[in-house]
Amino acid sequence: MLKSHVVSPLALPQMDMIVSKYTRHDPIHPSVSSISKRLIDVVGAFVGLALVSVVLVPIAIAIWVDNPGPIFYGQFRCGLNGRPFRMWKFRSMVVDADRLKHLVENEAKGAIFKNRNDPRVTRVGRFLRKTSLDELPQFWNVLRGEMSLAGTRPPTLDEVKTYSQHHFKRLLVKPGITGEWQVNGRSHVDDFEEIVNLDLAYQEKWSVGYDMTLVLQTIGAVFNRSGAF
Question: Which parts of the chain sit beneath pLDDT 50?
């Protein structure tokens, strides 16, 4: 069962126009055209989806028993050059969590939303987030070419609408399942400007080898459960 975040159809083409206004003069980042990066993404996606096939049934049962409803949650995010795509996760919140968002205090600074004790997160959802199992369906996004194994944090459409000009540079590469923000505190990073700095640092440091380093560091962070909530 799938659940999608409701977005006006008009918002999608509008988002492309908003982002292109600020990024059309920027050079193409080398990671975008890297055949090696794409090949690693495809191989990694197949491995990740194989893992999903193993854990899908027990996770689906746990989600359904804890809070009956869709197993997957799809939310529109901005990808490369602001191109909207639907990012998938295992559902970790109650049904209709998006409609309850206005009741939850935002503890983060800037164009992101975070609450360490978000009451919308279910009991099973907290476990999925602690172990990062909720993010496994994103391997499907990687296989489709909408995301990469390593990249920048994928922002929501609402977040991008509040961007200042320098924020749009973080959209010059594909978003990733992991990245600088994952290995440098993950959810402990609650200042948007810090996330922007981490994303821009990733773009400057990028190489295929650096991507692999981030992936390996993320695996360590997941097993240590560092920074997740």
Answer: 6, 8-10
Burial of 114 (0-12, 13-18, 19+ CB in 10 A): middle
The per-residue pLDDT of the chain, averaged, comes to 88
Whether this model's pTM surpasses 0.85: yes
Backbone angles phi, psi at 121, to 5 degrees: -75, 130
18: in domain = no
- Look at residue 229 and tell me if it is in a domain: no
- Structural domain tally of the chain? 1
Whether 147 is covered by a domain: the verdict is yes
Euclidean distance between CA atoms 154 and 186, whole angstroms: 13
Helices of type H across 154-191: 157-160, 180-183
Domain that holds residue 151: 2-12+31-224
Measured CA to CA in angstroms, residue 109 lies from 22, 194, 198, 228 at distances of 23, 10, 15, 18
Asked if residue 201 is part of any domain, the answer here is yes
SS3 content of the chain, % helix, strand, coil (to 5): 55, 15, 35
Per-residue confidence (pLDDT) for residue 9, from 0 to 100? 45
**pLDDT, tens digit, 9 for 90 and up, residues 19-47:** 666 666 678 899 999 999 999 999 999 99
What pLDDT, on the 0 to 100 scale, is given for residue 22?
62
